[in-house]
Specification:
With 153 residues, the chain is an all-alpha fold. Helices cover 85% and strands 0% of the residues. It contains 7 helices and no strands. It has helices at residues 3-35, 39-52, 57-69, 73-86, 90-103, 107-120, 125-152. Helix 1 runs antiparallel to helix 2 (39-52), helix 5 (90-103) packs parallel to helix 7 and helix 6 (107-120) runs antiparallel to helix 7. The protein is elongated and about 90 Å long.
């Protein structure tokens, strides 16, 4: 390998490193903005990160969380499902999808996704917590319905 090829290789390495640093910086910035409830700034940072790496599950999850915080659950679920394709921690995406369904009061769908998360990682406590809450609320609805029917008849 001649000197020019070595320099090109080193240059390419530094460009990749720079892109990774920019991506991590943007994700960190977005996280802080969202924690401050500055969703618009968080969205902008995540969109910039998305332009650098549209297959990054953390970026896709973040965009989903912003949509979910704004009550746009179906858009959030789309982002979570995209993240699922690229994620190595699929239990996280399944739990986020379950949570979005839970907030829409689609409890059977929520339980389904919490169970998928548990199937991926049976040590992932947030999935158990979400599933248990959805199952409890589903049970309470059934009890309320039974009480209403008793009063009616």
């Amino acid at each position: 390998m001649n000197e020019t090829e070595k320099l090109k290789e080193i240059s390419a390495f530094f460009q990749r490193m720079n892109a990774k640093i920019m991506l991590i910086t943007l994700i960190t910035k977005a996280k802080k903005e969202i924690e401050r409830y500055d969703l618009e700034s968080g969205r902008k940072s995540l969109e910039e990160a998305f332009s650098l790496d549209p297959e990054n599950p953390a970026v896709l999850r973040g965009l989903g969380c912003v949509e979910q915080a704004e009550g746009k659950y179906e858009i959030a679920i789309e982002y979570y499902k995209k993240a699922l394709k690229f994620s190595e921690e699929k239990e996280v995406e399944h739990t986020l999808i379950g949570t979005a369904y839970y907030f829409q009061d689609k409890l059977d769908e929520a339980v389904k996704y919490f169970n998928l998360a548990i199937d991926e990682n049976d040590d992932y406590d947030p999935a158990y917590e979400g599933r248990n809450q959805a199952m409890l609320e589903n049970h309470l609805k059934i009890v309320d319905l039974q009480e209403a029917l008793k009063k009616y008849f």
